[in-house]
Amino acid sequence: MNTKKDRAGRAVAGLLLATAATALAAQLRHRREALLQERRLGIEELADRRKALAHQQRMHWELLARAIDDPSLAAVIDTYDQSIPAQKRRQFFYANAWYTHLYHLYLAGILDREELYTYLREFFQSPLFREYWEASRTQRSTIRESSEEAGIGRMIDGLVNDLDEADTDAWWVVGHPPSD
Question: Which of 41, 53, 151, 158 is the most buried (most CB within 10 A)?
């Protein structure tokens, strides 16, 4: 038998259940909104980082171009062995611009590590680029060993070693590209 008390209890239980369901739905909606906001902020942060990297790369190229064009300005940043002829040191500045360009493409997420490796493997076919890499060893030794840049440098050193030891003319298959 349904008494008024039983019906009232069921009604109260139904209201409590409906209230709990509404609260749960609101909580889920709030979590989704928070996740979306977090993603938006992450995307904005990534976009800002890419803009900053692009600006830095433009500035780097502009400064290097001035140094390449004007030996008196090159003297400001020229830390290469002074026994290296001035023309070759200017070529090293240009090689550095290319290396920095590729490195920034990697940092911006445009190239992954394997693609960076592939591009560098081609660049290191140039004896002048290899000379640049060797001449800049002292400069690279000042980079914090645990940094991303130092890790890329070690990867390149391994690549150069693999290229030197390869007994094939098919340079494009030499080495072991890293996989991300």
Answer: 53
Buried/exposed code over 44-63 (b: 16+ C-beta within 10 A; e: otherwise): eeeeeeeeebeeebeeebee
Q: For the packed helices 148-165 and 127-135, what is the interaxial angle rounded to 10 degrees?
A: 130
- Angstrom distance (rounded) from CA 55 to CA 120: 23
Task: Please check whether residue 79 is in contact with residue 139, taking contact to mean a CB–CB distance below 8 angstroms.
Answer: yes
**What is residue 79's predicted lDDT score, i.e. its pLDDT?**
84
Over residues 113-168, the pLDDT tens digits come to: 999 999 999 999 999 999 999 999 988 999 999 999 999 999 999 999 988 888 77
Query: Residues 6 or more apart from 93 whose CB is under 8 A from it?
Result: 64, 67, 68, 74, 77
The pLDDT-based confidence of 180 (bands split at 50, 70, 90) is low
